[in-house]
Amino acid sequence: MALELVFLGRLEDLAGSSGRAVPFAPSLAAVIAALEPDLSAAVKEPRIRYAVNGTLVQGDVELREGDEVAFLPPVSGG
Amino acid sequence: MSSTVRLSTDPFDPAEALRQFAAGVPQAGGIVSFLGQVREGGGVEALELRHYAPLTLPAMEALAARVRERWSLDGLLVIHRSGTMQPGEPIVLVAAAARHRRDAFAAADFAMDHLKSESWFWKREKVAGEWRWIEPRPQDIEDLARWA
Question: Could you tell me which residues come within 8 angstroms of residue B20 by beta carbon, excluding any fewer than 6 positions away?
Fold first, then answer.
């Protein structure tokens, strides 16, 4: 098993795709640390929000096998 | 009261949606609607809105619930597109029905301000064959402060 990452908005361009599977990492911080340096820096910007399995989370959180982690830049609807 | 919230990945007909909505709220004295459409000009060839399924529709429903708590309405309609659209195509339709018009105007205005800057959509436009993501405008964030 692994983790599913989802990149929204401009993060998709940086990541090169809207999603990817990565090897398991025990925490959100560990997932971010394992990304390419430019993508890792981009998802650490203060305005980026995170969701695990569709629920918004604050700060670092523990992860479990198969979790979906979404990286959410500022929204622009309507 | 009835409240309809839709996230549509296909084009919708705003006139037909409004006709059906109005037919369902005969007790309302007024209906205020807002239609957002893809602006023509600036070399924009297409607009794409992306959403994140686990968050987007639930948050739209939560917004509708807030609107209903805040104003006395007979009905509320929110339709928001996701996907690729051409200039002139509808993006969002909000309609609020109330016994008196002030509540309907305010509720539709509030719903639109929050859809613009707090809902889970990401927008990009295609100009000269190149896609670029649109960041929220400072004005959109300031608009929210009106409701604090």
Answer: none
Domain ranges of chain B: 2-142
Residue reference for tokens 């509540």: B103
The Cα–Cα gap between B97 and B108 comes to: 9
- Decide yes or no: CATH 3.10.20.30 for domain A2-72: yes
B52 vs A contacts (CB less than 8 Å):
6, 8, 51, 70, 72
Distance (Å) from the C-alpha of residue A28 to the closest C-alpha of chain B? Answer: 18
pLDDT number for residue B38: 95
> Which is nearest to B92 in space by CA: B4, B31, B7, B3?
B7
The string of pLDDT tens digits covering residues A13-71 is: 999 999 999 999 999 999 999 999 999 999 999 999 999 999 999 989 999 999 999 99
Q: ipTM score of the complex? A: 0.92
